[in-house]
Amino acid sequence: MYGNNGIVTIFDSGVARAKSSSGLSAYFNQNYGGLAFGSSALTLYLNSQSIGSNLYTLTIDATGITAATQLGRGNAGGTTVQYDNGRLYLSPGAVVDAGTGNQLGQFSTTSPISTTPTAVSGPVVSDSTLGRAWIVPASVLENTNQILAFDESTFNPTGSLPVTGIGSYPSNSFNSTPADLVRWGQDGLAFHTSSQLYVLHGPILKDTSTSPADLAVSIQAPAAASTGIAFTYTVQVTNLGRNGSTGVTLHTALPASAINGVVTPSKGTCGGDSSLDCDLGMIANGSSANVTVSVTPTTSGTLGMTATTSSVSFDPVSSNNQTTATTTVTGNPFNPSPIITQLSPALVAAGSSTLTMTVDGTGFTAASSVLWNGQHLPTTIVSSGQMTATVDSSLVQQLGWAQVSVTTPHLEADSRRVAPAHLSTAGCTCKCHQL
């Protein structure tokens, strides 16, 4: 905080650090100015209006302000300062090097009483990614009632945005003088006077008529759940951009320690088991698409779900394209009865070499395993609806049939369903059919 006594103090949650600034130029209790951090929280810049105009670099550490260095005089002063990409943008319209204090340029404009460009002063904000800066002129001798845009390489005006009632010429008053200027969104500016807040946007900042979309994904999930009791995830994809997004897809990594149930998209289609891939089509700007997923936890612990969205349309903001939600699960292990619905392959030629068999069904858990005529096979759990098992070549040397089953330990009941094959027949841990 820069006090009217001319002293800068650093506060942490309302508590002042031990060391305040010292040695700064001050004029009784009639000092004002602006503060801005540099490229890190270790450097603070002060644009001061006291005895003359002064620009300082303040060095910060955990104890407060440890040093102050004057960068310049004359081209400083006013109420605002902004650091952007190695430059300082000051209220008098001056742009200086943040390291040396050397002036790099001056924003100028014509006035209602002269066609000769003069220095423009007022709150200023820069966006070096666009190469532009904007000023709300505050003096009656400048083009008021508008925001002016400037090219940061030439310092020449590039456009204006009319705003009624600020610093009006010829009757400028204190109540209409802008106090600050900030950027918001892709094409927005905001500032306030003593009596009014102004929020506006337009192509003077950025032409968004052909702007890309901005997809954001979120997951709604309960904080707590119990084993054996189903609950629902809701995954939402929202287009925050100014234009529609085409070819929107959603990929979710579903929890391994849960049985996946019904998947319902609000639009498009979804497929998969251990992971879910959805084609959501086109999402208009400001619109959303939801996918609900029912899951049943099988073990206690932390259940996590990750969702990622993408689209054919260019999305420059990637930070909101992925999210994760967690649910704390309590209760005893839950082992549902396994059911087989399909084997692949279902027919194997006698004398075949070692093969991998895929077992589809429901109710598979990490404790489940595949049996061949009651013999446990090396099993890999893919999801609650699919497993793979390695069938050694010694098991498929003779013509005939085999009972394939799935078993999960600690189940009171077994249910089996078999699909016939010459050498292998599908099933759970129960009865089988012979060809």
TrEMBL record:
It comes from the Bacteria. Residues 314-336 are annotated as: Disordered. Coiled coil: none annotated. Residues 214-326 form the DUF11 domain. It holds the Pfam family DUF11. This is DUF11 domain-containing protein.
